[in-house]
Design a protein that fits this description.
The complex is a heterodimer of chains A (315) and B (250). Chain A starts with a helix and ends with a helix. Chain A is mainly alpha-helical and 315 residues long. Chain B has 2 domains: 165 residues, Rossmann fold (3-Layer(aba) Sandwich), CATH 3.40.50; 74 residues, no CATH class. Chain B is globular. Chain B is α/β, with parallel strands linked by helices and 250 residues long. In chain B, a hairpin with a 2-residue loop joins strand 9 and strand 10. In chain B, strands 6-7-8-3-9-10 form a 6-stranded mixed sheet, with helices on both faces. The chains are: A mainly alpha (315), B alpha/beta (250). At the A-B interface, helix 6, helix 7, helix 8 and helix 9 of A face helix 2 and helix 3 of B.
Chain lengths: 315, 250
């Protein structure tokens, strides 16, 4: 238990001092690489809420990433730079879309739910491809970035990094509180057995819809950060492979665990970064890693650290 | 015994394609009684329970509960009004401890759903209420166990306890004795017997001996129809019943 707290503290200090450390080492290019990990950690955590806590296996979660990214990208290209306004629009657009998609999709279960969420995401993918005014299939490049209330710009890599890190911390802290709360218990109960949960008096459909919308909005915020990071958004960010990548992150990191999304996003992007320096067949090797995780470490990296702690306790 | 009718079922029907599962069922359950529903396999007992709990929509007929028409009411709203069912196949929340299962059942009955910030563990009142039920079930010392660590009999007891947790007015117990050993069966029979004071019970059961020991009223369902209903002694000697059910069983 103490080791866990020390480890968390060390990680936090490292996360906070990272931009300075990288600058001191003269490789400040890597700040944006790490920011990318943080942005995907937010997105993967939101999907983990949906899959791991709510038991809703969506293969269309990238739709919300893309909606958030396009909302922000379009506002930026029209000269609207206020980060607060971006957040509001992301919340509205992804929230309303998640409400619509959820209200329809959540009437189905299992494979049908996977297919219908995939279908909605693909519809939005083709929509993004066809909007010629905002880049069409070539994607939308933005020259400016969001401005924080104090006037600081997300153009500055360190600023973007800290904003993303603060948002990730907020998401994780909320998830932690949620897990032990009444709503968290209700959602985990309906994941275990929906029929029983309903028979006890829980409004299971409403519970699932709320989680679907929250997960969608959080993923939309990650999308908004992504545009600021890359200065670019393309329809590929709504493509189903993007949804699958998020799902791989969740499985790799640990389904239904607090840190699963973070660990999965960091591990996958790190592997991508390292492996792609040596081989053009990154996906091939990634496949083996995923196979190993599914076969030997069902609870992903988070589960592995838990069993490591158990093993230590036995010594 | 008070004669207030708590559950009033009138001419209830359900067909699955060409199969008639529930055929013009009339059923009255009065306050505070243990009302047993028996019948041979495939008589439609479980379908009727699912209709009463709102999980299977009825084709026609009406269900009134506690003075309100609930024929079209959603399952979770029926549970909130005090009509709760248990399951023939144990359905418990496997990721939660024994105590947390019950705490959730109580929380659900109180309609406490969307509070996403305050930890449940800090709610001493809720924990105490859950613990009190575990004492009644004889599971108090196993409160922190995981579900799969419990024996089959203990899981069945918890299954029944889940439906009692929220202090319902009427509990529908779907074969609580199913698959139980002799000792476990005896403990469960005593538990159901003790419910008489606090709840009304609709008991679906195969174990005829237990039924005649527990029930105040017995109704017999054959091929979706109620063929007899009354005091256990009268039902036992009813010729239609002996022909259709007891005769075949003995």
């Amino acid at each position: 238990m103490r080791l866990k707290h020390i480890a968390t503290f060390v990680c936090l200090v490292m996360a906070l001092t990272l931009p300075w450390a990288l600058q001191a080492a003269g490789v400040d290019f890597y700040v944006s690489v790490v920011s990318r990990m943080v942005v995907y950690a937010i997105a993967a955590t939101s999907l983990n809420l949906l899959i791991g806590y709510g038991g809703m296996i969506s293969l269309g979660h990238a739709a919300f990433f893309g909606l958030g990214a396009y909302s922000t990208g379009i506002l930026l290209s029209e000269g609207v730079q206020s980060a607060g306004l971006h957040l509001l629009v992301i919340g509205l657009v992804t929230g309303v879309m998640a409400l619509l998609i959820g209200a329809i999709s959540l009437r189905t279960r299992g494979v049908y739910f996977i297919m219908i969420t995939l279908a909605f995401a693909q519809m939005l993918f083709y929509l993004a491809n066809s909007v010629k005014g905002y880049g069409g299939d070539e994607g939308l490049t933005v020259k400016v970035r969001s401005l924080l209330p104090g006037g600081m710009s997300l153009q500055e890599p360190a600023t973007l990094y800290y904003v993303a890190l603060a948002l990730l911390a907020g998401v994780l802290f909320f998830l932690h509180r949620f897990t032990g709360s009444r709503f968290g218990r209700a959602v985990q109960a309906l994941r275990d057995d929906e029929v029983r949960a309903e028979a006890l008096g829980l409004p299971t459909f409403a519970c699932k819809l709320v989680i679907f919308v929250v997960a969608g909005v959080v993923c939309g915020i990650a999308g908004g950060l992504s545009v600021n990071l890359q200065g670019y958004v393309s329809p590929n960010e709504l493509y189903w492979t993007q949804s699958a990548t998020l799902m791989v992150m969740v499985i790799l990191g640990g389904v239904g665990t607090l840190w699963g999304g973070v660990l999965g996003a960091v591990a996958l992007l790190l592997l991508q970064e390292v492996l792609s320096a040596y081989t053009p067949y990154f996906e091939f090797w990634m496949g083996w890693v995923l196979l190993a995780v599914v076969l030997f470490a069902r609870n992903g990296l988070a589960g592995m650290s838990a069993s490591l702690a158990q093993w230590r306790a036995r010594l | 015994m008070s004669s207030t009718v708590l559950l009033d079922v009138r001419r209830l029907n359900k067909r699955f394609g060409g199969v008639v599962a529930t055929d013009q069922v009339d059923l009255q359950i009065t306050q505070g009684e243990i009302h047993a529903l028996i019948g041979p396999n495939g008589a439609g007992k479980t379908t009727l329970v699912a209709q009463l709990a709102g999980q299977v929509p009825s084709d026609s007929g009406s269900v009134h509960f506690d003075g309100m028409d609930i024929t079209r009411m959603a399952t979770h709203l029926r549970a909130r009004r005090g009509l709760v069912r248990s399951f023939q196949i144990t359905r418990l929340f496997k990721s939660m401890s024994v105590l947390d299962n019950l705490a959730l059942a109580i929380q659900a009955s109180l309609g406490q759903v969307f509070s996403a910030w305050r930890p449940v563990k800090q709610d001493v009142d809720l924990q105490d209420r859950a613990m009190a039920i575990l004492v009644r079930l004889g599971l108090a010392d196993k409160h922190h166990w995981r579900i799969e660590q419990l024996s089959h009999g203990e899981q069945r007891a918890l299954e029944v306890g889940m439906s009692l947790a929220g202090n319902p007015k009427l509990v529908l117990l779907d074969e609580p004795l199913a698959g139980m050993g002799l000792q476990e069966s005896e403990a469960m029979t005593q538990l159901i017997d003790s419910l008489r004071r606090d709840f009304s019970v609709l008991l679906i059961e195969h174990d005829v001996e237990a039924v005649f020991r527990l029930a105040d009223t017995v109704s017999v369902l054959v091929s979706g129809r109620i063929v007899a209903s009354g005091k256990p002694a009268d039902v036992r000697t009813n010729p239609a019943v002996t022909a259709a059910y007891l005769g075949a069983a003995q």
